[in-house]
Design brief:
By secondary structure, this protein is α+β, with helices and mostly antiparallel strands. The chain contains 17 helices and 26 strands. Strands 1, 2, 3, 4, 8, 9 and 13 form a seven-stranded mixed β-sheet that branches. Strand 15 and strand 16 form a beta hairpin.
């Protein structure tokens, strides 16, 4: 087959770029010929004798980078770049013949000496240059944020500074052209680059687009025709002009997830070999399909590959025992054909039949998840055996309690500390006290307030949190999920003074099961007075149902409107403490300070509930930070047509996600604001995610 025909069939529209693996591969390639059109990306065979196999195992080296968290609070954190890096390392060792001692892993979840800072990345690359044989192979993979400024493309390291000052960006990020040149200087003969970097806007919201640009491809391409290397492959997570998405369910990128699955054997032929051609076909088929199924029309991700010097249909990347149900050149297997017939089915029996027929098949995890979901929908949910409705608040034994609150003018200067009072009752939570604060009804502006908009504009103009950025574009990008602002009238209710503690969780977990089992000790860090975390939305709902049956009162998670109303407690500033917070007030990652002052405090655990000693104006503690809290609502991308009566928003929305609010000890102060909102799958048990509960005020 002619090379250009082959390229047309297998590579056109296939951009293997997600967060950073594909982008990195492009970085390592040298600039294409000036006459070559980037938009067409025609691949030309430049060697008469293409390479058919990788070097022997002892000559294979890899630098794998995953950046989830950034010191600069302007850079949006990512979900699974570290997971991408770790899983790729494992599959390279187990299936691709890379010696473990010749793989360097730099990731956000690693010790300090292996964090993906600019210095660490460049130093390790320099060390590899000295250690690698010239006839060896270097694989470089990057998962994280990429960005273009002017005509230059950059990879953002853990310590990069996102600024309008080009000199500062150049000094703290990695210019992809410079990285490519460093690799070229090593004189290594074979190079594999993987770039999974262009996902969301690094300086904006998680939903803002950050497409792959031609600057990455120009900066990364190598010239095998000039004999600087013999052969190279660059895998991009997405095509030029498209972004790469995060696979929320797997806590990885879609591209990296399927890349690893393909190398494990999902892309293997009947011999159990994963060739470059087979891997590309697998990625081009699976990534766009999964993105469409999960995210819907309008969300498109097409991986793309650049190959030069290799016999790409014979080059074996990983091998092992033949994989049951693997793809072959002859077409789809019976397993794949069956899966395609049933993957949109609403019958649990279809998925049960698949699981019985292919217990070790390629689609087992998706089939099992779909089967359990359909069975759950078909099973009547037990209703709490609620006792007679309460008719007066007197039966709640309300009493007055005092608390302290404060307003803060600056992150390091709490002022106006004062004593307030609130009404509460104490619930018997299966033998453990649970304090419930009375929240009087009222009307408030929900979402981004004028005060916060004005403050943000001042910061832009003065060079603060988002210096040198266009205020209108920044507000639309960063805050669009918190707009439009709208007035909401919230009836009175009772809200837990503190987040649910591990002692309270454990007590309720011992009560009789209703819809599902509850693990007694799910928390990431143990302690009776610490808030419980790593509990799913479904488990939090089960907690409320069990407590309702036990007490005869109606307990539930708060609506999103109730949560924000309670958090603000009559304020219109970014935090109920004022315009800023500090570690003295809130348990959060203050190394990501929005005040511009980095104090280096990065708490490693949640704090005992109420331990900061200061509440908001309603007498509620830890509404900012500590653990983020589940709300009942379905996720909606903005507040268009949101309820105005404080009720749970169940109409429309994305049924794959529920709302979480308040931030946690793991994130910076901007993600702890009163108006800040986020989402998570209802089955997710995320570190740093807990909840507090509401009791509906009884009617008089």
């Amino acid at each position: 087959m002619h090379w250009k025909t082959l390229q047309s069939e297998l590579f056109r529209g296939s951009c293997l770029l997600r967060r950073g693996v594909v982008c990195l591969l492009a970085v390592l390639a040298t600039t294409v010929a000036a006459a070559e059109d980037d938009s067409g990306r025609d691949l030309k065979r430049q060697q008469d004798q293409p390479i058919r196999r990788l070097p022997e195992q002892q000559k294979r080296y890899a630098l794998i980078i995953g950046v989830d968290r950034y010191e600069d609070s302007q850079i949006t954190p990512l979900l699974g770049a570290s997971n991408d890096a770790r899983t790729l390392r494992e599959v390279l060792i187990r299936r691709a013949g890379f010696p473990s001692e010749q793989i360097i892993l730099l990731a956000s979840d690693q010790p300090a000496e292996r964090r993906p800072t600019r210095g660490n990345i460049l130093r390790r690359l320099s060390n590899l240059k000295a250690a690698m044989p010239k006839d060896g192979l270097l694989l470089v993979s990057f998962a994280g944020h990429g960005i273009q400024r002017g005509t230059q493309a950059y990879l953002l390291c853990a310590d990069s500074q996102l600024s309008g000052d080009m000199a500062l960006l150049e000094d703290t990020a990695i210019n992809v052209t410079a990285m490519r040149d460093r690799i070229r200087e090593s004189a290594i003969q074979q190079v594999l680059l993987i770039l999974d970097a262009c996902r969301n806007e690094p300086g904006g919201r998680a939903e803002a687009d950050n497409p792959l640009t031609a600057a990455f491809t120009r900066g990364l391409n190598f010239h095998s025709r000039n004999r600087e290397i013999s052969a190279f492959v660059i895998l991009y997570a997405s095509d030029i002009g498209h972004r790469a998405y995060e696979y929320i369910e797997k806590k990885q990128g879609y591209f990296s997830w399927f890349l690893v699955e393909g190398l494990k054997g999902a892309a293997a032929n009947e011999k159990g070999e994963v060739t470059l051609a087979g891997l590309v076909r697998y990625l081009q088929e699976q990534v766009p399909r999964r993105v469409l199924l999960d995210l819907g029309p309008g969300r498109e991700q097409k991986p793309w590959a650049v190959v030069d010097g290799y016999k790409y249909d014979e080059l074996v990347l990983s091998a092992g025992a033949p994989i049951p149900g693997a793809q072959t050149g002859a077409g789809l297997t019976a397993e794949t054909a069956l899966w395609r017939q049933i993957e949109q089915s609403n019958k649990s029996s279809d998925y049960q039949a698949y699981l019985e027929t292919y217990p070790g098949g390629r689609y087992v995890s998706q089939a099992r998840q779909r089967y359990e979901e359909l069975v759950r929908r078909a099973t009547p949910q037990p209703q709490p055996n609620v006792a007679k409705p309460l008719t007066t608040t007197a039966r709640l034994s309300l009493r007055s309690v005092s608390f302290q609150t404060a307003m803060s003018e600056a992150a390091e200067k709490p002022v106006a500390r004062r004593t307030e009072r609130a009404s509460q009752f104490v619930e018997n939570c299966a033998g453990i006290p649970l304090e419930m604060i009375s929240i009087g009804g009222g009307t408030f502006p929900m979402g981004l307030t004028r005060t916060e908009v004005a403050l943000y504009q001042q910061q832009v103009q003065s060079g603060g949190e988002a210096k040198r950025r266009n205020p209108v574009a920044a507000i639309q990008g960063l805050f669009r999920m918190m707009m439009p602002q709208h007035l909401v009238s919230v009836p009175s209710f009772f809200l837990a003074k503190f987040e649910v503690t591990q002692a309270q969780w454990r007590a309720v977990a011992r009560l009789p099961r209703l819809a599902r089992n509850l693990e007694a000790s799910p928390a990431s860090v143990r302690g009776d007075s610490l808030p419980v975390d790593q509990v799913s939305w479904e488990e939090a709902v089960e907690f409320c149902a069990r407590l309702s049956r036990q007490t005869g009162r109606e307990y539930r998670l708060p609506s999103e409107a109730e949560w924000e109303y309670a958090c603000r407690a009559g304020t219109t500033t970014p935090y109920h403490f004022g315009e800023s917070i500090s570690p003295d007030l809130v348990n959060y990652n203050s190394s990501d300070s929005d005040s511009g002052k980095l104090d280096g405090m990065q708490p490693s655990a949640p704090a005992p509930v109420g331990s900061r000693g200061l509440a908001n104006g309603f007498g509620l503690y830890d509404m900012h930070g500590n653990v983020q809290e589940w709300c009942l609502d379905l996720w909606h991308n903005n507040y268009q047509r949101a309820p105005v009566d404080g009720s749970v928003w169940e109409e429309g929305g994305d049924r794959r996600y529920r709302v979480v609010r308040g931030g946690s000890w793991l994130v910076g102060s901007p993600l702890c604001r009163s108006s800040e909102r986020d989402r998570s799958a209802p089955t997710a048990r995320d570190r740093g995610t807990g909840f507090r509960i509401v009791m509906t005020s009884p009617k008089r």
